[in-house]
Write a structure and sequence with these properties.
heterodimer; A: mainly alpha; 16 helices; globular; B: 296 residues; mainly alpha; two-stranded antiparallel sheet; 12 helices; 4 strands; 76% helix
Chain lengths: 371, 296
């Protein structure tokens, strides 16, 4: 028992604690980063990696732990980003009030939309969440009352932001904020997944029909997971807005959610550190592969080879397909071979016509292996 | 009144494109349980193949109509071949693993759009079509662009052909039976996998037609067109009922008309939101879509 507590809390806290000292490192790591680690540019990149690690974990809560394939997670990230920004910039609210407002609206939105979209399961759920996110995207592009600033994106009024988060010199504070965000998401997810509703989520992922037969209502539990994941994503959206110092429509494009899905699968669905690592690795590669594409080695290649190598998303999409085929557990699965692959276990939840038989059985009381 | 007629015909034209995409999606989902995210890529293959062939391979041909038709034929063929290849190479090894199939199509759609952007750039390309398509016909005082008629007629023809194929041929029978109960069809000794490839190829052709028509409708083609049309096609599929071609047709008309009317009479963009609202209402009232009312 004592050992588990140690493993559950001591390791994450040690890792996050160690990461807190990164802004103090003055080393130059050629090829990996453009400038010294403590420089604002590199810290900004690392902070974005961490935020995406956290956002990927909020998505994993839905997809990896509950078996909900959502294509609309970006909506809640965008709600955090845009609502805070609009309240500050257009309505001249204070920073704290704006954050509370964005969090409250994000929460209400996830309850209402979750309630409607969970009327259907599996693939139809995926399509419906996509449609709701699309409505949000249309709203942002429509730019009502000039609030969202449409395609251009909206920069927050820096007078209203806490001075610690303004200016290039303060990038390290933003890094710490991003680190705190991913730590909070990690610990909340850990607590939620190990709680008794969390056990039910995983049981729903394994075999929804069985949960229903046991006299529990899967829909209520699924809504719980949906609301928690979406709310954490809204908080992530606020951090993301501060880091980018803007809200722009890419945060609500369908590709944003697909990117989170890719991160989770690359890292390992149903694994906490796997999802975080997936987010960090994906964002880093997305950012750095562009530099590789522009390097003289690639530019010297013939046209047929050069064109694909210049497109980070083409490379990441291809890597992703290869992982789905040959490494179904992602990075986390690589580290723990022999465990049932997370994706395989999700099958039952999505198969049309319900989940009758065939699934590897998991009882409700069986403790889930810590990931 | 003339505005209303113009909106109606334009809405039907848009609905026609939604139907062409949605019918393939719906059949693929109904038969195989695959949500095909790469369906937008099929559309892009159709539009880019027809554009490229018409502009580069057939540029010696003087008649624009002939060039357009030859290009379109190449686009359709490319769509069918590409879709069949996707099924054989990427989907077939993952049969019965629906999540992984969805993931693979998601990866393909992202990688494919990136590749098209890499080769032909992110900018839109003008899409050459016979001059007649860009002129208008006046009906009850409304000036209707001629391409709308082609879109509506093509979609109607595809609907009729698809229904004839599904109801009058042996392969159609197998596909319909597979949608109802795939295990039973397999148990009767029929190799249902051939039907899978066939359905993918059919879906690819229909999406490629939509690609050619979207080039005509918007006058240009760009790499992101497939994705944006795909989202509305998803909505049409859910409203129409997964697996039902007839349901898709009705839902496509409803969605296309609603979008046009509201976008004009309320405000641009509101029509798109009205469609999403309609989806929410349909789900609350009838979670299985309209399919109950309209048979396959």
């Amino acid at each position: 028992m004592k050992r588990r507590v140690l493993a559950d809390f001591a390791w994450p806290l040690a890792v996050f604690g160690a990461l807190a000292f990164v802004p103090k490192i003055g080393w130059d790591v050629p090829k990996v980063f453009d400038s010294a680690i403590s420089s604002p540019g590199t810290l900004q990149l690392l902070a974005l990696c961490l935020v995406f690690g956290g956002l990927a974990l909020t998505y994993d809560l839905l997809f990896g732990f509950t078996g909900l394939l959502s294509f609309g997670h970006a909506l809640y990230v965008a709600a955090g980003s845009y609502l805070t920004n609009i309240a500050i910039t257009n309505w001249h609210w204070g920073f704290a009030a704006a954050i509370l407002f964005a969090a409250a609206v994000g929460l209400a939105l996830s309850v209402v939309l979750g309630f409607v979209s969970l009327r259907v399961g599996g693939i139809a759920f995926a399509m419906v969440t996509l449609a709701f996110a699309q409505a949000g995207s249309v709203l942002v592009h429509k730019n009502p009352h000039d609030w969202t600033n449409g395609e251009e994106g909206l920069s927050p009024d820096y007078h209203k932001l806490p001075s610690a988060f303004v200016g290039v010199f303060n990038t390290k504070h933003l890094y710490w904020l991003a680190l705190a965000y991913v730590a909070v998401v990690f610990l909340v997810t850990r607590w939620a997944v190990e709680s008794s509703p969390g056990r039910v989520w995983q049981a729903i992922r394994e075999n929804e029909l069985r949960v229903e037969v046991l006299g529990l209502r899967p829909r209520a539990y699924k809504l719980m997971a949906f609301v928690l994941g979406s709310f954490l994503a809204t908080l992530g959206g606020i951090v993301y807005m501060l880091l980018n110092n803007s809200s722009d429509p890419s945060v609500i494009a369908p590709n944003f959610t697909l990117m989170l899905l890719l991160m989770v699968v690359i890292g390992g669905a149903g694994s906490r550190w796997g999802a975080v690592l997936g987010g960090v690795v994906y964002y880093y590669l997305d950012n750095r592969l562009g530099a590789v594409g522009g390097s003289s080695t690639v530019q010297g290649l013939p046209h047929v080879l050069r064109t694909p190598l210049e497109q980070p998303l083409f490379l990441l999409g291809t890597i992703f397909i290869l992982i789905v085929f040959f490494l179904p557990g992602g990075i986390a699965g690589l580290a723990a071979r022999g465990r049932p692959a997370g994706l395989r276990r999700l099958e039952e939840a999505i198969r049309p016509g319900g989940a009758v038989g065939g699934a590897p059985e998991a009882t409700l009381t069986e403790p889930q292996e810590g990931a | 009144m003339s505005t209303f007629i113009l909106l109606t015909i334009t809405g039907l034209g848009l609905g026609a494109m939604y139907f062409l995409i949605a019918s393939g999606l719906s059949l693929i989902y109904g038969l195989m349980g695959v949500l095909n995210f790469a369906h937008g890529a099929f559309l892009t293959v159709g539009s880019y193949a027809s554009w490229w062939m018409s502009d580069h391979a057939f540029d010696g041909i003087h008649s624009l109509l002939l060039r357009f038709l030859l290009g379109a034929a190449c686009g359709l063929a490319a769509g069918a071949v590409f879709a069949a290849l996707v099924e054989l190479v990427l989907i077939r090894p993952l049969y019965q693993r629906h999540i992984e199939q969805v993931l693979v199509t998601v990866g393909l759609s992202l990688a494919f759009v990136a590749l098209v952007q890499g080769i032909w750039g992110t900018d839109a390309h003008p899409y050459a079509a016979p001059g007649w398509l860009h002129r208008t016909t006046t009906i009850f005082g409304a000036h209707i662009p001629n391409d709308r008629w082609i879109e509506i007629a093509t979609a109607a023809a595809v609907l009729v052909l698809l229904q004839l194929f599904l109801h009058r041929t042996r392969y159609g029978l197998i596909i319909r039976a597979g949608v109802e109960n795939r295990a039973m069809v397999t148990a009767l000794g029929i190799d249902v996998r051939k039907a899978f490839t066939l359905v993918f190829a059919l879906g690819g052709v229909a999406a490629a037609i939509a690609g050619v028509l979207s080039g005509v409708y918007f006058n240009t083609i760009d790499p992101s067109q497939g994705t944006s049309l795909l989202i509305f096609a998803f909505i049409v599929v859910v409203i129409g009922g997964l697996g039902s071609v007839g349901g898709s047709a009705v839902a496509a008309v409803v969605v296309g008309l609603l979008q046009q009317y509201v976008n004009y009479y309320a405000s641009s963009g509101i029509g798109d939101m009205a469609v999403v609202l309609l989806l929410g209402l349909v789900l609350l009232a009838r979670p299985r879509g309209l399919a109950g009312a309209f048979a396959t």
